[in-house]
């Protein structure tokens, strides 16, 4: 069930489409369960990252067998961006099934990083075609 528009959190920062940045792992910080073994950051903002994950890259069997991975929403997670040699922690804000493509997992990292650092990360993330 969707929240009324007044209750939904407003977008904190504009989104930026990125050239795919490899995510080598995502782990929960509550019990250190590995959630995914591979993914790609496809959009970013100064408050969060949108990660594209294929079903076969989800580690827990329970997640791989379900079409709905909303159980992850609210989990505090730890990400490794190998292309940038960077580790980020944040909270899973939402998930979305994309059919055969896989899933989107949105991670909000605004509570775990200072604003200046988040703005600098946005400047460093490559735009599509920038690395070609």
Q: Alpha-carbon distance between the termini?
A: 42 Å
The helix fraction, in percent, is 10-25%
State the helix count.
2
Largest sheet: 6 strands, antiparallel, barrel
Notes on the structure:
The protein contains two helices and seven strands. 11% of the residues lie in helices and 39% in strands. With 132 residues, the protein is mainly beta. Strands 1-3-4-7-6-5 form a six-stranded antiparallel beta barrel. It has helices at 61-65, 115-124; strands at residues 16-28, 34-36, 39-44, 48-53, 76-81, 86-97, 103-108.
TL;DR of this structure?
The protein has 2 helices and 7 strands.
Keywords for this entry:
132 residues; mainly beta; 11% helix; disordered N terminus
Secondary-structure map:
Elements lengths: L15 E13 L5 E3 L2 E6 L3 E6 L7 H5 L10 E6 L4 E12 L5 E6 L6 H10 L8
Antiparallel strand pairs: 1-2, 1-3, 1-5, 3-4, 4-7, 5-6, 6-7
